[in-house]
């Protein structure tokens, strides 16, 4: 995950973490931080926010915390709501979807005239999952009545949810409806049901296009339209892009390996305009692939950072759990992470020294006295 000219630090002990990590965390820089689950990455992300808020001329709303879903952001929300949290404007904690929706609402007068809506003066109606399914259902029902899904055994509700899911994933990957279904047809397995699957995909493509036409006629904004407007209009228009990038000067992007191609593209575009950025990723993760996650994209964004630091050991995993992780990796044909051995050796002694989601005010004390090994510096 190393960029061509990016220094990469492997930090084998908690003592070296104190000496090497805190100066990097408490700095105005663009840093990529990786490590196994429980190694303290989120705690260090919270420490970065607290340090930033102690600096002159940095307000809370200058800082953006971006996570793949709201539940992942809970440690940040908890830390920022404590009684000793700095006063002033709040830090913005959101997801790519939340950021995109806010931008579409904010820049709607600009977008309405160029995005193909029938009535640009009409205020948009944002659809949630249930209302999107409601509007999609009429087109699915018509296709079912025509027998377009007779060749496959699938429930009506499944067709509705799958067509919406295809629209959402296509938008997140930057594909048009036609491009997405061309790929799906190429991926359809051969065999006796091949023709039936192709026919079902073509029916789903038609349903998607009818649904999109309805949205443009009635000014309805479902999730896929929201993402498309953000990626293709907000980020390509000079005025809206520059205005958006000026709203925040400091970024914390946690669990980046679980986020989408669109989120990674946004961060990569935003990085040159930021004063500081802390990008965080878990090793051996990227489990939200079926929801559109793009783990490889996190590696690409990492290469745009000034520095990369890797935390070698989990502070909460028992030796037995580390061994199980290593065995599962081998059974799946994956090479176990080189730091698993370090984790297994140090898990007992360090399990209670640093909680990944705990308070970081005791960070220095928790990390002291854990060893004096020199860090291994691997050139990028």
Using brief descriptors, characterize the structure shown.
single chain, 380 residues, alpha/beta, 8-stranded mixed β-sheet, two-stranded parallel ribbon, 16 helices, globular, disordered N terminus
Describe this protein's structure.
The chain has an 8-stranded mixed sheet, sandwiched between helices. It has helices at 14-25, 41-53, 74-80, 96-106, 108-111, 129-145, 156-173, 177-187, 194-218, 223-234, 238-245, 261-270, 295-302, 319-331, 340-350, 363-367, and strands at 8-10, 30-35, 63-66, 92-94, 125-126, 220-221, 250-253, 276-282, 307-310, 376-378. Helix 4 packs across helix 10 (223-234), helix 6 packs across helix 9 and helix 12 runs parallel beside helix 13. Helix 3 (74-80) links the parallel strand 3 (63-66) and strand 4. The radius of gyration is 24 Å and the shape is globular. The longest helix is centred in the middle third of the chain and has 25 residues, at 194-218. By secondary structure, it is α/β, with parallel strands linked by helices.
Please give the radius of gyration in angstroms.
Answer: 24 Å
Number of strands: 10
* Spatial shape: globular
- The number of helical segments is 16
Strand content: 5-15%
Strand order within the widest beta sheet: 4-3-7-8-2-9-1-10
């Amino acid at each position: 995950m190393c960029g061509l000219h990016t220094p990469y630090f492997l930090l084998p002990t908690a003592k070296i973490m104190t000496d090497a990590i805190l100066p990097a965390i408490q700095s105005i820089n663009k840093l990529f931080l990786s490590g196994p689950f429980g190694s303290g990455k989120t705690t260090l992300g919270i420490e970065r926010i607290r340090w930033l808020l102690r600096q002159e001329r940095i307000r809370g709303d200058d800082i953006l915390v971006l996570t793949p879903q709201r539940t992942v952001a809970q440690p940040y929300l908890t830390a920022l709501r404590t009684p000793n949290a700095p006063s002033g404007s709040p830090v913005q904690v959101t997801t790519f979807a939340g950021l995109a929706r806010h931008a579409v609402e904010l820049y709607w007068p600009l977008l309405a005239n160029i995005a193909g809506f029938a009535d640009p003066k009409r205020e948009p109606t944002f659809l949630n999952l249930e209302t999107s399914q409601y509007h999609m259902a009429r087109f699915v029902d018509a296709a079912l009545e025509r027998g377009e899904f007779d060749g496959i055994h699938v429930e009506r509700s499944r067709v509705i949810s799958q067509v919406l899911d295809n629209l959402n994933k296509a938008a997140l990957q930057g594909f048009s409806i036609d491009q997405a279904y061309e790929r799906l047809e190429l991926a359809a397995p051969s065999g006796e049901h091949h023709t039936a699957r192709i026919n079902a995909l073509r029916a789903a493509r038609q349903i998607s296009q009818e649904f999109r036409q309805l949205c443009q006629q009635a000014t309805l904004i479902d999730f896929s339209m929201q993402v498309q407007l953000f990626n293709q209009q907000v980020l390509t228009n000079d005025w809206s892009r520059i205005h958006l990038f000026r709203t925040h000067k400091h970024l914390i992007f946690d669990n980046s390996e679980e986020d989408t191609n669109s989120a990674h593209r946004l961060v990569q575009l935003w990085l040159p305009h930021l004063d500081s950025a802390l990008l965080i990723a878990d090793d051996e993760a990227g489990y939200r692939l079926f929801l559109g996650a793009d783990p490889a994209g996190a590696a690409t964004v990492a290469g745009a950072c000034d520095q990369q630091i890797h935390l070698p050991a989990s502070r909460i995993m028992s030796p037995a759990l580390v061994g199980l992780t290593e065995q599962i990796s081998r059974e799946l044909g994956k090479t176990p992470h080189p730091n698993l051995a370090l984790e297994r050796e140090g898990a007992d002694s360090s399990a209670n020294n640093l909680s990944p989601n705990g308070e970081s005010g005791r960070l220095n004390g928790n990390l002291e006295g854990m060893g004096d090994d020199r860090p291994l510096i691997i050139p990028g």
